[in-house]
Design a protein that fits this description.
Layout (H helix, E strand, L loop, with lengths): L3 E2 L3 H11 L5 H9 L3 E5 L5 E5 H10 L1 H11 L3 H4 L2 H11 L7 H9 L7 H11 L2 E3 L14 E3 L8 H16 L4 H8 L4 H10 L3 E4 L5 E4 L15 E3 L21 H4 L8 E5 L2 E9 L7 E6 L7 H15 L5 E6 L2
Parallel strand pairs: 11-12
Antiparallel strand pairs: 1-3, 2-3, 4-5, 6-7, 8-9, 9-10, 10-11
Organism: Candidatus Marsarchaeota G2 archaeon OSP_D
InterPro entries: AlkZ-like
Protein name: Winged helix DNA-binding domain-containing protein
């Protein structure tokens, strides 16, 4: 799956649950707790859960992307502080044990006087090999996770790692163009990517716009008339960010209602392979757990939609008594 978007810890579990027919939540959580999978900043500077080996390979490759993100949020910060010194200080303070972002920021202000603690912690989280420490709870991470240092290679063999990442991306999201891969990852390397794609044993297609789309040799193009099942995706699911042209999954007219920074982006409802609604889970102490589904066009939820909604509610709430409410926004 080339990593699971994990801006919220539950999102990665739901992304895996919706894709894997025999998904085992316990096994997934165990892989996180035993360190086989880690949660850290990667593609586009967002949090992902990936295998530890993939993180060790991909993390150095993503450094230019992560620097760009830091500069966009805190312009000038990297001109005022030394990344080498930041790394030295963070590694030292983490020798006493893992720290939350807030704790790390406060500790760093003693060394980088005058800099906002949130800026220092943000830069550390993105620009240094820091991963979140899991805990034995359902979604494997608390709301305020602690960070620890992980030793990884300082430099990546760019061509080899880029080829490996591109191949993993195609297995998850192909057919796709080089521009699609760049939009998903945040990487550029345009010339390198062209050379890598031409040297790999890939399938190549032309879309209606004349763009070259690549895919793996063992991939199969599904017939356009094959019905796509109803699916409930979590917030920030990679399907919505996997291609430069998002029109292939979401109509531009409804995109602002779905893809947003604040308030929290909702989960999405796929009907026929397109985003046709949003959903949110509400579980306040003492009340009946509620799944709220907002549809954009479909006034009457189909049986398939209702059954999938019930399956989702049962998975999230683990309760026999739940409420599922449908509304329509045209």
């Amino acid at each position: 799956m080339c990593g699971l978007n994990a801006q919220y810890a539950s999102s990665a579990f739901l992304s895996a649950w919706v894709r894997v027919s025999d998904f085992s939540e316990e096994a997934f959580r165990r892989s996180i707790l035993n360190g086989r999978m880690v949660r850290a900043s990667l593609m586009r500077g967002t949090l992902h859960i990936v295998e530890k080996e993939d993180y060790s390979e991909w993390r150095p490759l993503m450094q230019p992307v992560l620097k760009r993100v830091v500069n966009s949020f805190f312009p000038g910060l990297l001109n005022r502080i030394s990344l080498e010194q930041l790394g030295h200080e963070v590694k030292n303070i983490l020798m006493d044990g893992p720290l939350t972002r807030a704790e790390m920021g406060r500790r760093l202000t003693h060394r980088f006087k005058g800099e906002p603690p949130e800026a220092l912690a943000f830069a550390a989280r993105l620009l240094l090999p820091l991963i979140q420490v899991p805990s034995p709870e359902r979604w494997a991470y608390p709301n305020q996770p602690r960070y620890t240092w992980i030793e990884i290679p300082d430099e990546a063999s760019t061509d080899g790692v880029l080829a490996s990442l591109f191949l993993s991306y195609l297995k998850a999201f192909g057919p796709a163009s080089l521009a699609d891969f760049q939009a998903w990852s945040g990487l550029t390397y345009t010339a390198k990517l062209r050379n890598i794609a031409s040297s790999m044993n890939l399938l190549a297609y032309r879309d209606q716009s004349g763009r070259t789309l690549f895919d793996t040799r063992d991939s199969k193009i599904v017939d356009k008339d094959t019905p796509a099942p109803v699916r409930f995706l979590p917030d920030y699911d990679n399907i919505l960010f996997a291609h430069r042209n998002r029109d292939r999954v979401i109509d531009p007219s409804i995109r602002p209602r779905v893809i947003r920074g604040t308030p929290r982006m909702p989960g999405t409802v796929l009907i026929g392979g397109f985003v046709e609604g949003t959903w949110s889970a509400i579980n306040k102490g003492g009340g009946t757990p509620k799944l709220r589904i907002q549809l954009f066009k479909h006034n009457n939820p189909t049986l398939e939609l209702r059954e999938e909604a019930e399956r989702l509610a049962h998975y999230i709430f683990r309760s026999e008594k739940t409420e599922i409410a449908y509304t329509t926004e045209v």
